[in-house]
Amino acid sequence: MFTGIIQAVGHIAASEARGGDCRLRVATGKLDLGDVRLGDSIATNGVCLTVVALPGDGFVADVSVETLTHTTLGSLGKGARVNLEKALTANSRLGGHLVSGHVDGVGEVISLHADARATRYRLRAPDFLARYIAHKGSICVDGVSLTVNAVVGAEFELAIVPHTTAETIFGDYTPGSKVNLEVDVIARYLERLLMGDKAADAKASGIDRAFLAEHGFLKD
Predict the structure, then answer these.
(1) Phi then psi for 212, rounded to 5 degrees?
(2) Which domain range does residue 76 map to?
(3) Count of domains in the chain?
(4) pTM above 0.90, yes or no
(5) Of 18, 110, 120, 132, which is the most buried if we count CB atoms within 10 A?
(6) For the chain, which ranges sit under pLDDT 50?
(7) CATH number of the domain to which 77 belongs
């Protein structure tokens, strides 16, 4: 588990194709690796990666086909900057929100503009994630825990303060940039619980208007 509070910005030092998936070497910059051991987890742009080697200036991780398919990691070239966070410990402060490092989908930056000293970003999530994004709810963007300031359909807005811009890769984004999105884990589990016995039905499509009407949540 992670908090979505970025501890350092590193960069991709190397990417090596291996039998259909790949091995990444990440230079970790100011991130303290003194307490990191083989098998530990480090969130890299919001993706939970397992440390398989510690070359001294960073770490090495294998990236599966599943991760390459559903995140932006496969498109990052040598030198690309990445947000980094070590796994949460029992005595850590939970300054953001509970983040699993399991990316739900890839979103896109639509626009950005100055908003006093902050920057207002508008992003579009994949349609299937729109149901989990709520006004003033939490969302994780490339590993950063953020509050949703507005939401219309599958698009949502974020206000990024100067500190976040300076300490993460948000300052690198331009319209069209692709980002990893992780929705609030509580929302995912709540949807599954509300489905009840239908969760075991392979044909069930999740919670939609028909489901809500059937269970009395919608009135004529």
Answers:
(1) -65, -40
(2) 8-86
(3) 1
(4) no
(5) 132
(6) none
(7) 2.40.30.20
Tokens standing for residue 98: 């509970």
Q: What are the two backbone dihedrals, phi and then psi, of residue 93, each rounded to the nearest 5 degrees? A: -80, 135
Rounded to whole angstroms, the Cα distance separating 53 from 42 reads 12
Give pLDDT tens digits for 70-93: 999 999 999 999 999 999 988 888
Residue 2 lies in a domain: no
Whole-angstrom distance between the N-terminal and C-terminal Cα of the chain? Answer: 43
Q: Has residue 24 been placed in a domain? A: yes
Residue 141 pLDDT? 98
33 falls within a domain: yes
Q: State the CB neighbour count (10 A cutoff) for residue 197.
A: 7
Strands of the sheet with 58-63, listed across from one edge: 47-50, 41-44, 81-86, 8-18, 21-27, 58-63
Scan for tokens 């207002």, then name that residue.
Answer: 120
